[in-house]
Design goal:
This protein is an alpha/beta fold and 282 residues long. It has a seven-stranded mixed beta sheet, sandwiched between helices. The protein is 45% helix and 13% strand. Keywords: Hydrolase, Signal.
Length: 282
């Protein structure tokens, strides 16, 4: 009975501790700390295989962002900025010593934001198929100023559009869409389910927030080594061109292109593990 009571108390303490942050955190493994940040709409479970690979050598702090994959949404005029500030608070509260960052897609964008704003706080960074300014991927001349008044990025309109998306057929339609980003149908359906469980207002808001935040100049402040893993966008040469444009001002970087769609950790798992192992052990 005492054991059960102790376990229950520990569980409740964990819930209370997580409640002070906008995101959910799961911690496992032992060793040097690493924060793993998932991409748009995804659960931290997207890193399950990665955590299994790293947990014997690293203490893995796996985030799921507010409003994503069933985590409670938050009220904020800028959700992603709130998350960024909460991550900095979390690192300070937990006294994590230069934790490494591994981020996918939006998580890679967030990793660059954190490293730009607090370059002395974090260790090495792995950016998995994410960029400093998503709106400029097809046209590097695009700036925040040039698109901020574009109706395509009106937050209220986008949120309302997301809210009006019917539940019926959502997972099936999203699974089909996700097959453009991941090769196998099992993972495509899982990502679709996470999207279905996400708060629609959060999906709309965070998409606009990321689309209107340009970090391309800010990343010059990043001090630590950064490994950038890109998917193949039409051709590997085209991916290298886009990523070199996006990360032009990043001082200490290496860009590698996978023979993979967007979810590199799923499509090219062995290659992905080999890349991060070599980088983290340098």
């Amino acid at each position: 009975m005492k054991t059960i009571s102790f376990l229950l108390l520990a569980f409740l303490v964990s819930i209370v501790a997580n409640a002070q942050y906008s995101f959910n955190v799961q911690v496992s493994g032992k060793g040097a700390p690493v924060l793993l940040i998932p991409g748009y709409s995804c659960s931290g479970e997207v890193w399950n295989e990665t955590v299994d690979h790293l947990k014997d050598s690293y203490e893995c702090h796996v985030l799921t962002l507010p409003g994503y994959a069933g985590v409670a949404p938050i009220e904020s005029s800028n959700i992603l900025e709130t998350v960024k500030n909460d991550i900095l608070t979390y690192v300070s509260d937990k006294k994590l010593n230069k934790p490494m960052l591994i981020g996918h897609s939006l998580g890679a964008f967030m990793s660059m934001w954190l490293s730009s704003e607090a370059p002395d706080t974090f260790g090495k960074v792995v950016c998995v198929d994410g960029v400093p300014f998503i709106s400029a991927m097809t046209n590097p001349m695009v700036t925040e100023e040039s698109i901020k008044n574009n109706p395509m990025f009106d937050k209220a309109t986008i949120i309302e559009r997301y809210k009006q998306t019917p539940d019926e057929g959502y997972v099936e339609n999203m699974t089909t869409a996700m097959l453009q980003q991941v090769s196998d149908s099992v993972h495509a359906k899982q990502v679709a389910i996470w999207s279905f469980k996400s708060d629609r207002a959060t999906l709309g808001s965070t998409m606009v927030e990321m689309s209107l935040t340009d970090l391309r100049d800010d990343i010059v402040k990043v001090k630590q080594p950064v490994l950038i893993l890109a998917s193949t966008f039409m051709t590997k040469e085209n991916s290298l061109r886009i990523y070199n444009e996006q990360y032009k001002l990043l001082p200490n970087k290496r860009i590698e292109v996978a023979d993979s769609k967007h979810f590199i950790m799923y499509d090219a798992t062995t290659w992905f593990f080999n890349q991060i192992d070599a980088f983290l052990n340098e």
